[in-house]
Amino acid sequence: MKSAIILLSGGLDSATVLAFAKQQGFACYALSFDYGQRAQSELAAAQQIGQVYQVIQHQIIPLSLDLFGGSALTDKHIDIPVNGGEQIPVTYVPARNTVFLSLALAWAEVLKAQDIFIGVNAVDYSGYPDCRPEFIQAYQAMANLATKAGVEGEQLQIHTPLIAKTKAQIIAMGMDLGVDYLQTVSCYQADAEGRACGACDSCRLRALGFNEAGFDDITLYQK
Amino acid sequence: MKSAIILLSGGLDSATVLAFAKQQGFACYALSFDYGQRAQSELAAAQQIGQVYQVIQHQIIPLSLDLFGGSALTDKHIDIPVNGGEQIPVTYVPARNTVFLSLALAWAEVLKAQDIFIGVNAVDYSGYPDCRPEFIQAYQAMANLATKAGVEGEQLQIHTPLIAKTKAQIIAMGMDLGVDYLQTVSCYQADAEGRACGACDSCRLRALGFNEAGFDDITLYQK
To answer: ipTM more than 0.85?
Structure first.
């Protein structure tokens, strides 16, 4: 059984990715970050999802990305946008996927795992540069030069099973896999119980996804 | 005046890099990590060096790399080797430079800086894969696809002024720049006062460097 690291945020996408990796027969290790994100209930969701899928280990790494500032997701002085439309929105956390993949890479080296799963998506990606296929390819090339395993001829693979899917297709895939989306938190400003605002970009994308996929939106909203 | 992030460990190499970046006219921001390294006096040295060079800001990011284990530098159950000779030694911290550069990249994005300095060295590099020029080139290519600045056409540059130098050449360069090496800690197992063991790979490389450069070894040793 091959081991894999799954980046698990507690959101809809990464829960779907974990279900997929598990179905593919990987021994799954979940990795989450406490990086000063506003919605701490996202982390509680990640823990619950990790338990449901019986991951072998779930590490939650404290990471002070808020020290750098610069994002509405970690800086309480910047408002969460509710109307979309920008090229790269203020919810972009600088270099987030680069940082998360790097820590996944470190853990993969220790576990001698050659597989990392990440729920990036280039379709409904809100304009984040680090969700594009060309970024993932460049990351994989770099990672294979960075590591002891790479030097010794092993090839690390970064799996992005959602990269070409719309939110509706992701939800349909997750429904097939039996993901309980009630356990997931997508909202940028969810409350302590994980209830969604219904107005931020992430909420709007999620609601649209359920609608387009032809499923009831089971998300719990604040009002 | 252009801003640059300098990865500053408190060791001889990164102190030399900071002096070099300052001399090149960069507005310097220092970045260090408290990653469970055994030699905590290294961090005290980093702080002192940052003050000497009047960096604009010095961030010390807590980072629990020791949660992953796998290195003699962060795992107290693995002995520090004193006889060298291995291909990739147990002092290798998995994906360390990848992780450090990724956090530097995050801060660079926030500061709108296009320059990151890192004191990697491919000559006396103890066999670490993430110190080689091909790794740095791949990292830079990835970083330019990862970021908002990259998407908008800016080019990030990773400066590695020491990459092709021997330890003796680095020390000669630092002496020219006026670096006070008494303030630096290179030892993998320095004591609380920053005094070196004199036996680990890092101590041996440093002592040899002073000798070959024709300078007295001013390092404080434990005995």
So the answer is: yes
